[in-house]
């Protein structure tokens, strides 16, 4: 039934073409919304942390995953989207922490919050 295969392929092509026109190429291909370069870096760093956590014990992995999730969520709410300098700083700091986490001797992560308020 080569004609059926041709018909299905043609229908799929037409459907994809309509989605591209309506939503743009990335959405039509199932890629979600188009991300900026910096957003891609942040998402890549987050995924790298989760991959690195897989190499740890189940208990440590759970703690690491919850810490990473909480830290990314906290920063997403507290940092302005247009504050590129601060986001770049956080990316650099995150990459250093990721390198430390990849070390076989490291079992967890922690963070120190310093308040700069004057008494």
From TrEMBL:
CDD domains, per database record: Complex1_LYR_SDHAF1_LYRM8
Subcellular location per the Swiss-Prot or TrEMBL entry: Mitochondrion matrix
Domain Complex 1 LYR protein: start-end pairs: 40-100
Keywords attached to this entry: Chaperone, Mitochondrion
Main location: mitochondrion
GO cellular component entries: mitochondrial matrix
Record GO biological process: mitochondrial respiratory chain complex II assembly
Pfam families (UniProt xref): Complex1_LYR (PF05347)
Family membership: Belongs to the complex I LYR family. SDHAF1 subfamily.
The name this protein goes by in its record: Complex 1 LYR protein domain-containing protein
């Amino acid at each position: 039934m080569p004609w059926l295969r041709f018909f299905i392929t043609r229908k799929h092509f037409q459907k994809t073409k309509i989605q591209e026109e309506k939503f743009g190429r990335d959405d039509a291909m199932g890629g979600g919304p188009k991300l900026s370069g910096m957003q891609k870096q942040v998402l890549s760093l987050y995924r790298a942390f989760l991959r690195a956590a897989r190499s740890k014990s189940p208990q440590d992995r759970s703690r690491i995953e919850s810490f990473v999730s909480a830290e990314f969520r906290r920063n997403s709410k507290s940092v302005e989207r247009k504050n590129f300098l601060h986001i770049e700083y956080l990316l650099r700091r995150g990459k250093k922490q990721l390198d430390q986490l990849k070390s076989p001797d490291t079992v967890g992560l922690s963070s120190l919050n310093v308040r700069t308020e004057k008494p």
